[in-house]
Amino acid sequence: MRKRWLTLCLLLALLGPLAARAELPRVGVGAYSGRDTFITSLVGQIRERGQGRLDLHIVYAQGDQNRQNDQILQMIEDGVDVLMVNPVDRVSAVYLIALARQHDLPLILFNREPLREDLAAYDRAYYVGIDPRRQGELQGELAAAYFRAHPEQDLNGDGIIQYVLLRGEPGHQDAELRSLFSLRAMTAQGLRTQKLAEETAYWEKGLGQERMAMLLNAYGRRVELVIANNDDMALGAIDALKAAGYFAGSQAIPVIGVDATAPALEAIAQGALYGTVQNDAARQAQAVVDLAVLLAADQPVDADSYPFPLNERVVYIPSQAITQDTLP
Ligand code: GAL
Predict the structure, then answer these.
(1) pLDDT at residue 5, as a whole number
(2) DSSP of 192-244, one letter per residue?
(3) Which residues constitute the domain of residue 245?
(4) Within a domain: residue 16?
(5) pLDDT tens digit string along 224-251?
(6) Quick one: pLDDT band at residue 12, thresholds 50, 70, 90?
(7) pTM (global) more than 0.90
(8) 204 touches ligand 1 (CB under 6 Å)
(9) Is the same domain home to 118 and 198?
(10) How far is the CA of 145 from the centre of ligand 1 (A)?
């Protein structure tokens, strides 16, 4: 009798964790690419923070919207409880929203912001990201502060800062709005600027390097400032600048990015990257995971249940500027 009882206890102890695991809400996670530094870190944080709370199934779309649509259909067929999607093309999110609605599944979009009217069409669709306007402003404020402290870096002494801009993917809200608001903030801070040229480098370090090398060929020492829509492109630009002899001895040039990725923080510590603006992956991941837990349990999402700023089903996690003086 005692032996049978012990066997039963043993069985329960073994099955317990399995049963608990089976009860976790199933979440299908679709990311636009597995080769993007910031997205890799964001998805890694979602994985970490979802542990023990969500049963996550993560797939990558390799930059192909059709492939992503198929992946989401497959997740629905597999019976997920919640969808989390980082769309390839934010305008195509309208299709994903309609699909989630049709299947009555909660949908959390992240990092690539849908159009507000698309999001408004389904009351179980949410967006988690950052405010790219504020990030652009912080970049512009960093640039203005730099030239206030280093007027000698106006190399030709004309009272105007000649700069080049490296842009992310066309149509991406972060590329468009960071570009616009960084310029507005420089002007608002009293910094006179002239954009010599802009190049699109699709968030990529290799392209950032290539485009910066081209710009240096065309403009050489006329370039006094580099603004990049993200850190990977800024780090690529620094590689090109180093190859052209900058950052050796006293030849510096301010380069400003966004994201605060690990390699960017290292480059700030080394004095190559002047500054960046945080794109807080940890808090964005926490906001996504907490939201999924509530939606899966059909709980209300409001100020009492959810500790993140929520406005018409949009969550913007605040960003901060980082330089050597404020390195975490
Ligand atoms: C931005 C980020 C970029 C890139 C992009 C992908 O928020 O700054 O580095 O990851 O998202 O959508």
Answers:
(1) 47
(2) -EEEEEEEE-TT-HHHHHHHHHHHHHHHGGG--EEEESSHHHHHHHHHHHHHT
(3) 133-277
(4) no
(5) 999 999 999 999 999 999 999 999 877 7
(6) very low
(7) yes
(8) no
(9) no
(10) 25
